[in-house]
Amino acid sequence: EVQLQASGGGLVQAGGSLRLSCAVSGATFDDYAIGWFRQAPGKEREGVSCITGTGSDSETYYAHSIKGRFTASIDNAKNTAYLQMNTPKPEDTAVYYCAVADIHTMVEAYTLVPEFYHYWGRGTLVTVSS
């Protein structure tokens, strides 16, 4: 039913830029929050960003570690979400995942909590070199 496919990962130098994409089917951004998560080797999965709703009802949440550097966005026409990664750091190296959660059961405090998301993409590897 709901399917997600993350893409755009690869090797990038610190201070460069990279844009990740997440193609979503079977879900609309009006009904589902779209989040980006990452998992570095030996570490637990953590939330990166989340967008809830569209238009004037939309809210965007970011992890403190990436604020001012990464930007989340959505394209409703393409039903695709993006994560623009500017000036990435080596510590940003991780497998990045996109996921959706039902807005009707989502709570603001849990927007970046992986356990509250229902559907996940495979993930795409981002490696930041120094």
Helical percentage: under 10%
Unreliable residue stretches: none
Biggest sheet: strands, sense, closure? 7 strands, mixed
Computed structural class: mainly beta
Counting DSSP H or I runs of 4 or more residues, the number of helices is: 0
| Average pLDDT score | 96
Radius of gyration: 14 Å
H/E order of the elements? Answer: EEEEEEEEEEE
DSSP strand count: 11
Amino- and carboxy-terminal Cα gap: 40 Å
Instruction: Give the overall silhouette.
Output: globular
What percent strand? over 45%
Characterization of the model:
There is one protein chain. The protein has strands at 3-7, 10-13, 17-25, 32-39, 46-52, 59-62, 70-75, 80-86, 94-102, 119-120, 124-129. The mean pLDDT is 96. The chain is 0% helix and 52% strand. It is globular. Strands 2, 4, 5, 6, 9, 10 and 11 form a seven-stranded mixed beta sheet that branches. It has a four-stranded antiparallel beta sheet with strand order 1-3-8-7, with no helix packed on it. The protein has 130 residues and is an all-beta fold. Strand 5 and strand 6 form a beta hairpin. It is built from no helices and eleven strands.
